TrEMBL record:
InterPro entries, alphabetized: Aminotrans_3, Aminotrans_3_PPA_site, PyrdxlP-dep_Trfase, PyrdxlP-dep_Trfase_major, PyrdxlP-dep_Trfase_small
CDD domains assigned to the protein according to its UniProt record, in alphabetical order: OAT_like
PROSITE patterns from the UniProt entry: AA_TRANSFER_CLASS_3
Gene Ontology molecular-function annotations: pyridoxal phosphate binding; transaminase activity
Family to which this protein belongs: Belongs to the class-III pyridoxal-phosphate-dependent aminotransferase family.
Record's protein name: Aspartate aminotransferase family protein
Ubl conjugation is among the record's keywords: no
GO cellular component: cytosol
Lineage: superkingdom: Bacteria
Cofactor(s) it depends on: pyridoxal 5'-phosphate
Pfam families hit by this protein: Aminotran_3
Keywords attached to this entry: Aminotransferase, Pyridoxal phosphate, Transferase
C-alpha cells in the first residue's frame, strides 16, 4: 500500500492491525478468526473503537496513564509548538522544556534535587539501579550492591526490572536473571502472613529480617511502590512506611520509591509517598507525568545522591555514564509542563480526593451486596476489588472468573482492569484508575457496570 488513503477506511486499518501489529500482553491465536479491538478516538473519559462503540475508560488508557483525560488540545499544541522550535537534543546538553519541567517537578517534591530524563518507567528504574550499583563501587568498595524488592510489586519489563519484580508470572520464561535482587514479604493484610495486631510494623520488620540475613553491608537500596499497583492495589497498613524509612536509615540503605503508577495525582497528592511523611532518596515516575501525550520518565534524586557522582578528574569514570536517547526528546517535558498546569489550575488533586471517596463508598456498597467481593482497598482514584469464592476461607476466584467480570463490564460499556497473569493463584483483583477529571456521574456509571457484571457472573457461577 503506497499511499495513506486507507487511513480513512477503518476496515482497512483494522485489517492492517490484525495482519501486522504485535499487541502487548496478548495471545494472538484468537485473532486468526476475530479482529482485535482498535481504539480510534478519545474525549474526556470516553473512547470509541473502530465499530463506533463508546466506552467509559476506568483504567486511564488501560495502564493507569491518561491522568487528565483524552482530547486535551492544549497539551497537543504545546507539544506541536515545541517540536517545531526544537524537537530533540541529546541529554548531555539542556533544553528549555527540560529545565522548566525539572524546576516545576522539584518544587512539588521537597527534599529532592535532580531530574534524570528517559522515556519509560522500566528505563527510569534501570537508571536508579545503575546509580545504586555505581555508588556501591565508588563509596562502598563494591559491597553494597544488592537491591531489595517486595512481593507483588512491579517495576518494569526489562530483564533487570523483571529481576526486581514480585510478580512471578510476569517473569516466567525470561530468565536467567542478574544476581543481586532480593525479595522481601508483601504487606497485604487481607492476605496476612502474621497475626500481629500492629501488622504494618510487623510487615516492615520483615524487611529488616531480610537485611540481617543478607548482611547490611551488602544491601544498597530497596525499591518499593508507595501503593502496590498491578499486584492487587495494596495500600500499606498504618505504621508500615515510617518503620521502613527508619530501617533504611539505620542500615544506610537508599529508599527508592517507584511512582510510575501513583505519580502526578493518582492518589490525591502529587506523589503517593507524600501520604506517609517519608523522605525517599530516589523517586521514579512515568505514565501520568504527561498523561500519555508524549513519552517521558524521570529518575529524581536527592542532591546528596547526585553529589556522589561529582568528582574531580582523578576518577575519569566517576560520573554517571548513562544515556537515554529519547530522554532528549523535548515533547515529553513540553507535555509534562502543560499536564501539571492542568492538574493545578483545574484543582484535580481535590477532585481526586472527593471522587475517590465516592468511588470507595460505592465499592463498599458492592461488597455488602455481592458475596464474591472479599476486599475493597484503595486511595484517591486508585482502587482494587479482590474477588473470592468464599468470604470465610478467602479462597480467590479463578482468574477466568475475574476476567469474566471484566468482560461483562465491557459489555455494559465500561473498561476496567484486572491483575493480569502476574501472581499464581491470585489474579483475582479488579483494578480501577479513572482519569483525575472523573465526575460523580462517571463514578456511578463505573460502579453500576461492576454491579451488573458481578450479578451476571455470580449467577453463572451459581447456576
Amino acid at each position: 500500500m503506497n499511499d495513506l488513503s486507507f487511513l480513512n477506511d477503518l476496515g482497512a486499518v483494522v485489517a492492517a492491525d490484525r495482519a501486522h501489529v504485535w499487541h502487548h500482553l496478548s495471545q494472538h491465536k484468537p485473532y486468526e478468526t476475530t479482529n482485535p479491538r482498535v481504539i480510534v478516538e478519545g474525549r474526556g473519559l470516553r473512547v470509541w473503537d473502530a465499530t463506533g462503540r463508546e466506552f467509559l475508560d476506568a483504567v486511564s488508557g488501560g495502564v493507569w496513564t491518561v491522568n487528565v483525560g483524552y482530547g486535551r488540545e492544549s497539551i497537543a499544541n504545546a507539544v506541536r509548538d515545541q517540536l517545531v522550535k526544537l524537537n530533540f537534543f541529546a541529554g548531555a546538553m539542556g533544553t528549555v522544556p527540560g529545565a522548566v519541567f525539572a524546576q516545576m517537578l522539584i518544587d512539588k517534591m521537597p527534599g529532592m534535587g535532580r531530574v534524570y530524563y528517559s522515556n519509560s518507567g522500566s528505563e527510569a528504574n534501570e537508571k536508579a539501579y545503575k546509580m545504586v550499583r555505581q555508588i556501591s563501587h565508588r563509596r562502598h568498595g563494591g559491597k553494597k550492591w544488592k537491591i531489595l524488592y517486595r512481593e507483588r510489586d512491579y517495576h518494569g519489563t526489562t530483564i533487570a526490572t523483571l529481576a526486581s519484580g514480585g510478580q512471578p508470572e510476569r517473569a516466567a520464561q525470561y530468565g536467567p536473571f542478574p544476581d543481586g535482587f532480593v525479595t522481601v514479604p508483601h504487606c497485604l493484610e487481607y492476605r496476612a502472613q502474621w497475626s500481629d495486631a500492629d501488622y504494618g510494623r510487623r510487615a516492615a520488620d520483615a524487611i529488616e529480617e531480610v537485611i540481617l540475613r543478607e548482611g547490611p553491608d551488602t544491601v544498597g537500596a530497596i525499591v518499593l511502590e508507595p501503593i502496590t499497583a498491578g499486584g492487587g492495589v495494596i495500600v500499606p497498613p498504618e505504621g508500615y512506611w515510617p518503620r521502613v524509612q527508619e530501617i533504611c536509615r539505620k542500615y544506610d540503605i537508599l529508599l527508592h520509591i517507584d511512582e510510575v503508577v501513583c505519580g502526578l495525582g493518582r492518589t490525591g497528592t502529587w506523589f503517593g509517598y507524600q501520604h506517609y511523611d517519608i523522605q525517599p532518596d530516589i523517586v521514579t515516575m512515568a505514565k501520568g507525568v504527561a498523561s500519555g501525550y508524549a513519552a517521558i520518565s524521570c529518575t529524581v534524586t536527592t542532591e546528596a545522591v547526585f553529589d556522589m557522582f561529582k568528582d574531580d578528574a582523578s576518577d575519569p569514570l566517576g560520573y554517571f555514564r548513562d544515556i537515554s536517547t529519547f530522554g532528549g526528546c523535548t515533547a515529553g517535558p513540553a507535555a509534562a509542563i502543560e499536564n501539571m498546569r492542568i492538574i493545578e489550575e483545574e484543582g484535580l488533586l481535590e477532585n481526586v480526593r472527593l471522587m475517590g471517596a465516592r468511588l470507595g463508598d460505592n465499592l463498599a456498597a458492592l461488597k455488602e451486596k455481592h458475596a464474591m467481593v472479599g476486599d475493597v482497598r484503595g486511595k484517591g482514584l486508585f482502587w482494587g476489588v479482590e474477588l473470592v469464592q468464599d468470604r470465610a476461607s478467602r479462597d480467590p476466584v479463578p482468574e477466568g472468573v475475574a476476567r469474566a467480570v471484566v468482560a461483562a463490564a465491557l459489555d455494559r460499556g465500561v473498561m476496567i482492569g484486572v491483575t493480569n497473569r502476574s501472581l499464581p493463584g491470585f489474579n483475582n483483583t479488579l483494578c480501577l484508575s479513572p482519569a483525575l477529571i472523573a465526575t460523580a456521574d462517571d463514578i456511578d456509571t463505573i460502579t453500576d457496570a461492576i454491579d451488573g457484571a458481578l450479578t451476571e457472573v455470580g449467577a453463572q457461577a451459581n447456576g
